[in-house]
Write a structure and sequence with these properties.
Blueprint: H1 5-8, H2 21-24, H3 29-36, E1 42-45, H4 52-61, E2 66-71, H5 77-85, E3 96-101, H6 108-119, E4 123-129, H7 133-136, H8 139-143, E5 146-149, H9 155-173, E6 176-179, H10 181-190, H11 195-207, E7 211-212, E8 215-218, H12 220-227, H13 239-253, H14 257-269, H15 273-288, H16 295-309, H17 315-327, H18 333-346, H19 406-419
Parallel strand pairs: 1-4, 1-5, 2-3, 3-4, 6-8
Antiparallel strand pairs: 7-8
Helix pairs in contact: 5-6, 9-10, 9-11, 10-12, 11-12, 13-14, 13-15, 14-17, 15-16, 15-17, 16-17
Length: about 425
């Protein structure tokens, strides 16, 4: 009983793995592949605590290959070479199954070291990662592997795992444990689909609960106190971080205030106030923009207030601003205009300036029409007169197209009238 409870409870068969029905139900392709015993190179991709390592260990036991394990956070090139050296010995007769956990921490050169042996079949690779493999795994490795995505567990699957933990604790300690269905469901919800986190929450809740007679009574309050932060799955350098921020901004852009406030709450629960403020400002400028021009100073004021008062009070001005952005009319006309202009600049289009826009300076002998000839708009009716502003190479280019909203249409109608 010296090993962690999560390790002692690790499933030993495919049927004991919680969740992942889309991969491991009897009619699913991965299940059938495993049962044939002909294991291809595979990459397991998904959040922590959902069974990637467990499944790899079960697969290894079902093959005749020699199992070797490495972790990308601690292993180096020397460890890879040590495994490769075994291929010519007794342990490599049937090939080696290498389980490489956290492959995203291996650099390109380290991953390339494996390539030859993966290709000829002397090493079968099962790699796992919490990051998107298409960004972090060397393309040549990916092209020789099949990627399987693991998903966070549904609450019902985690409830079953929690009840299994309680049974095992009872069997190991002999203690009777009393815990309400409400507390069990709270743990299942608060773990965010991470079984390992749920196991740890159950163990802590039981160990910290007093005896009433011969029964350990786990109160609802104890469970809430020990799991209040565990629902927040938020690695600021990982996919979960960017998925949450993306969902937050897209909900505002999609004019859904309820979803936007939900994702704001999740960001703030992780104490990531700067990211919430930054995405809110970006959305106000990019997605509302000229349809409601006053949105930008209003949101800026809300962001300034939030940064001034800090959490938890910052949630109030941010909620005001998020709902306002979500419910405002939308226009990305300015966003599209600057993108088109930037594309032309990066392509080298334009260059130079119309003479009338240049700062006043001496005209050389090569200039036939000397003088700047700038027309000062305020000297003309309606403070406007026609003259060239774009560089010669871009005359006639249109970057800005008015959005279909009353504010921009009013601007467009005004200038159409003036320019006639």
């Amino acid at each position: 009983m010296d090993s962690p409870l999560a390790d002692r409870l690790r499933p030993q068969t495919l049927d004991e793995i919680a969740g992942q029905h889309h991969l491991l139900d009897p009619d699913r392709p991965l299940r059938r592949i495993i049962e044939t015993g002909q294991i291809p190179n595979m990459v397991f991709y998904g959040p922590s605590g959902v069974g990637k390592t467990t499944l790899a260990s079960i697969i290894a036991r079902q093959t005749n290959k020699t199992l070797r394990k490495l972790n990308g956070t601690t292993a180096g090139t020397a460890d890879i070479r040590s495994i490769i050296s075994e291929l010519s010995g007794f342990s490599g007769m049937n090939g080696i199954l290498l389980y490489l956990d956290e492959i995203q921490y291996f650099n390109k050169k380290q991953q390339q070291t494996l390539l030859e042996f993966i290709e000829n079949g002397s090493i079968t690779l099962i790699a796992s990662t919490t990051e998107n493999p298409y960004f972090y795994v060397y393309s040549a490795i990916l092209s020789r592997s099949t990627v399987f995505e693991f998903k966070a567990l549904e609450k019902d699957d985690v409830v079953q795992a929690v009840r299994r933990v309680l049974r095992v604790l009872h069997e190991e300690t002999g203690d009777d444990i009393r815990i309400s269905d409400k507390a069990v469901e709270h743990i299942a919800y608060a773990c965010g689909g991470d079984v390992r986190k749920a196991v740890n929450a159950v163990e802590l809740s039981v160990l910290s609960s007093p005896f009433e007679g011969k029964v350990r009574v786990v109160s609802d309050d104890t469970v809430v106190q020990l799991t209040q932060k565990s629902a927040v799955k938020y690695d600021r350098e990982g996919d979960e971080h960017y998925d949450l921020l993306s969902a937050f901004q897209k909900s505002m852009r999609g004019s859904d205030p309820d979803a936007a406030v939900h994702y704001l709450a999740r960001i703030l629960a992780a104490d990531d106030l700067p990211s919430a403020c930054r995405r809110l400002m970006v959305c106000a400028c990019e997605d509302v923009g000229l349809a409601n021009p006053q949105i930008i100073p209003i949101v800026k004021a809300a962001v300034d207030a939030a940064m001034m008062v800090g959490l938890p009070e910052a949630r109030i001005p941010l909620a005001d601003a998020v709902i306002l952005v979500a419910l405002s009319p939308k226009s990305n006309s300015a966003y599209m205009a600057i993108n088109k202009a930037m594309a032309d600049v990066q392509a080298g289009k334009g260059g130079g300036f119309p003479r009338q826009l240049q700062n006043k300076h001496y005209d050389g002998d090569d200039v036939k029409d000397k003088g700047q000839h700038y027309l000062y708009p305020h000297d003309f009716p309606h403070h406007w007169t026609a003259q060239q502003y774009l560089p010669d190479a871009l005359v006639g280019t249109r970057y800005y197209e008015p959005g279909e909203n009353k504010t921009e249409q009013a601007y467009a109608d005004y200038w159409k009238k003036i320019r006639k």
